[in-house]
C-alpha cells in the first residue's frame, strides 16, 4: 500500500492532464523533476519511486527505476516487456522494441 498526503494526490491528478505524467518519491513524499536519466516501469518490487501517466484514456501507476544509461534503460525495459521508457532530459517517452 502507498500512503501520501491528499494534496499530493491532487497534484498527481493534475499532472496526468499534461505531458509526461509525474514521478513521485514515496520515501520522501516529494515530486521529482530529474533533468537527466531514464525511467523504466514494471519493477516487480517496490522501488520507492512511483511513476504515473495517462495513455489512451487509461491511467497507469507503476514502480519505476531511474537509470543513467539510455542503453541500460532500454535493455531493462525489454526484459520487463515494457513498451517505453521516459527520457527526463528530452521530456518524452521513448518507445522500445520488445524482444520476441
Please write out the topology:
Elements lengths: L5 H11 L5 E4 L4 E2 L6 E3 L8 E7 L2 E6 L1 E3 L2 H10 L4 E4 L4 E4 L5
Antiparallel strand pairs: 1-2, 1-4, 3-6, 3-7, 4-5, 7-8
Supply database-style keywords.
globular, 8 strands, alpha+beta, four-stranded antiparallel beta sheet, 100 residues
Distance between the termini: 33 Å
Shape: globular
Sheet-strand content, in percent, reads: 25-35%
Radius of gyration: 13 Å
- How does the helix and strand content classify structurally? alpha+beta
Query: What is the averaged pLDDT score?
Result: 90
Order of strands, widest sheet: 2-1-4-5
Question: Which runs of at least 5 residues are low in confidence (pLDDT < 50)?
Answer: none
Number of helices: 2
Please report the total strand number as a whole number: 8
The arrangement of helices and strands along the chain is HEEEEEEHEE
The profile of the biggest β sheet is: 4 strands, antiparallel
The structural domain count equals 1
Structure overview:
- This protein has 100 residues and is α+β, with helices and mostly antiparallel strands.
- It has one domain.
- It has helices at 6-16, 70-79; strands at residues 22-25, 30-31, 38-40, 49-55, 58-63, 65-67, 84-87, 92-95.
- The mean pLDDT is 90.
